[in-house]
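Appendix B. Chain record.
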Amino acid sequence: MKIAVLGNMNNNGFALMRYLRDIGEEADLLLFDDDEDNYSSHFSLKADTWHLEKWKKYVKKIPITNSYAVPLQKKFFFKIILYFTFFYRRIFGLDNYFLSKPASNSSLQIFKEIIDEYDVLFGSGAMPAILNSLNRKLTVFMAYSMGVEYLEEKFFLKKLKSRNLLVRLLAHETLKEQKAGIKNTILVINTEFTATERAYKNIGVKTATCQIPVVYFEESNPKAYSDQLKNALTKINSFEFNIISHVRQQWIKPSNFRENEWRKISKNNDWLIKSYKDFLQKHNYPKCNLVLFEYGEDFNETKKLANSLSISEYITWLPRMSRKEIIVLLKNCSIGIGEFYEEGVIWGGAGWEIIGSGIPLIQKFSSENKKTYTKKFQFPAPQIISVDNITSLTKAISDLYKDKNLRNERGSQLKKWFDEFNSYNTVHQLINLIDSK
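Structure tokens predicted for this chain:
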């Protein structure tokens, strides 16, 4: 069975390809034109492995983007609108302007010839719509956005109601094409049981529940450490207790969102800053360190909040870094902090990186969420330390600070769980699901 993993959003595709190769499957990673560029630049292959030479022979480049423009261009009317949008956005230097550029006929032909070599196609993003527009069928769809990209993802829903007629037209046509493509997909995998599950139910699509192995752990190469990583490690190792949170800073409500809408997708990163202030005061400002990253649209606001609370000197801010380097840092920290979504959203890539690194993870994951998780996946949920407000977050950090044995125990439990229920076990489950179709 020859398998193609289409695209590498969040480095998920590269991780999946390596797991598939490790269990003996003939799998390749196909990178889109927009993979490793612009907003995806920190999701490059070299950012996710210390052993690129081993894997690059299983990687191919495909000459289209994983965006709405490709399925929409089959209709001449929309092709004209797309070209107009592309040139307008490029002239005015708007973000991600290239996503609205239609693919050339020759590029589409090359793409079809490449994918026709494979028996199984894994994809995310606009892949259901793209393949459906080319009279092809996606084998496995794995959404990476809460609510599903181009379906009910919150920022996309705003485009459906945009005051800009062109934006609204493109969004509605994209929605139509994505719905058709998802319905035509052989196997739709779901791992998120709030907005994403609702989105699939709303279009009448049945899903299979199976985890996706999105983080691939390997031996690092200290000789290849950057000066930035070495300096960060030196600073971290000078403290007795290090808290790390590398999730996207997303907690300031945009003006075009209502309060009740934003509550469901805010990561509430400000909880950690306020809790850290309380923790420092409670323990008389011990030799501790909070490691944060300049990642996400609101990191400057987080810096302002820390400064207003007079705790900036107890925080180490690092620039956006590659995942392979972040994993090295995680393994040298005491505890990891995830996200605090209002709904019972399952942790994302950052959470998986913390779990697999073998340090405790604190985030919102209620007892009800755990019950749902166990029921859906048919195995126990990981021993994440769940908090639901700033006070409980402060207590969780304090408990782990005071008890090193507890930290080690919690971290070991998570690593053992990851090895048993994610990783290679998950890849075998995926292959079994495909074989059953």
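Further analysis of this model is presented in Appendix C.
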